[in-house]
Amino acid sequence: MFAPAAPPPPTGKTHLRPNRCPRPGIRLGSVTRKARSRDETTPQNEPPTAPGPSLSRLEVRNLATIRTLDLSFRDGLSVFTGETGAGKSIIVDALGLLLGSRSNTDLIRTGEDDLLVTGFWGDDVASRRVTSQGRSTARLDGEVVALRELQDWAQRRLTIHWQHSAVSLLGPANQRALLDRQLPAELGAYAAAHRAWADARARLEALRASERERARQLDLLQFQATEISDVNPVPGEEEPLQADLNRLANLESIAQGAAGAIMLLSDGDENALGFLAEAVRSLNVSARYDDTTAQLQRELREALDSVQAVVGELRAVAEGQAPDPEELARVEARLGALGKLRAKYGPTLDDVLSFHAQVEQELAALTRDEQDAGTLDADVAALHAELLRAGAALDTARRDRAAPLAAELVAVIRQLGMPHARLEFHLHALNEPGAHGLSDVTLHFTANPGEDLAPLADVASGGELSRVMLAISTVLGADTPAVVFDEVDAGIGGGAALAVAAQLRHLAQARQVFVVTHLAQIAAQADHHYKVEKSVEEGRTVSRVRLLPPEERLHEIARMLSGNTSEAALRHARELLGPAHASAEAAAEPASSAR
Q1: How many CB atoms lie within 10 A of CB 387?
Q2: Alpha carbon distance, N-terminus to C-terminus of the chain
Q3: How much is the pLDDT for 165?
Q4: How far from the centroid of its chain's Cα atoms is residue 329's Cα?
Q5: pLDDT tens across 506-539, in order?
Q6: Within 13 Å and on the Cβ side, how many CA atoms surround 441?
Q7: Around Cβ 539, how many Cβ atoms within 10 Å?
């Protein structure tokens, strides 16, 4: 149990720092803010650093009662106000579509085929179109992407605290994350140790559970490897073997053919050699007198020599082609062995060789598994010991941060109209190491004096839960450059409203903050004040959003205070706004347009 020191309820006005825009050029990415110690007047301390570019522009087409909307934004605190039912939360709905919220065709303006929302973060553009048929198209910089990719992209740039999102605090994982988000080193070390231990344990369990199957697989693989190794096939050897087989199987026919040719060329009573020799002799006389005849005689002599050479080779073929049954059987057996391998592991001999290589690899892996099974027990034990060390370090870091963080949150919660609130983080040991630590973390809370602390999920009312959520949001900020609060100030008024406004303005020193609010105290602290208005044009309801100039803003604050713009209400509004704030607003507002 880690109980914070109970600071007294704050008194007097909360000091506000001049608004500071986030520093430009900060690289977008996963940014972890180091824990800072804060006293009970949190807005006086330095806010966390903004993690990236802010939302510069929003375009909306055909969303609910909005026909077209084009808004430009600056850094700091922007508020959206308007009469009840004017559609203030439409802006939040539009941004929610960019965050991947479920597309509802009811959001499409009546009579239109689709709606389109486009957000600009510096040079980056994200958009989402929803058609009346329920189809949704997401784009990043004009390129069509999966909705999940748009969601991941937008979640690094925008956080929305919806009107009822405080219920997320009821989840133990979210309560644990309040501490762990500030302990990245310890959490990362534990996660790595848990992953290594879990992987080793899973492998050991798999080895133990599959010993019989592994033995069966080893026998099969060893048989297959031996069967192929015994034959020892050589790539490309089948074609020459098949040629040898054809020759050996037809030796008698080959010899008979050669003998017949010899008879015709030389051994017969009338043969080719005799005719060629006679032809050469018949040209002896004419060749003396005619060069052409002489050339032809020389060619006949060459032909005679060639035929004689062929006859010599044919005699060798005819006399040397005696059948060799052993050689024939050897070739047939080799081809049969290769064919058997192809039938089982083919269809080609190259496939057989590839299969053999794969079998050898699997055999090596199974052999390693058998060897590892003997030593993996020790490895698992060593990794478990390392996991326990990392878990103990994580729990120590959680304990060190728990009480200061609880004190920071309580200080803000008490400012929000619960002066007797108490809050603690409790660690509960798990039966075995979990993916997020050796312990679970829960928030214990009470808003009433004399009451025991109990789990937040069991004792907090809806209004109390919203204030705790608001305290967490303003104390810890958000991990994105733009943060939206959708009427999280519901049920808050009076001095608590001033404290909420101070917290939101403090957060806006490092982040772009958008607030849909009904509280004049919050609206008066804004750097930029937008009003949502609804009217009827040509029988159709149309909502507009426009940036208020100083005089109109004064009247809007007066309306929010008392429902009218009487002199008393205007005087009260001037007090809330202050002359310096009004003059600064008049000099610095960006151009906006909405139709």
Answers
A1: 20
A2: 56
A3: 63
A4: 63
A5: 888 888 999 999 899 999 999 999 999 988 888 8
A6: 26
A7: 5
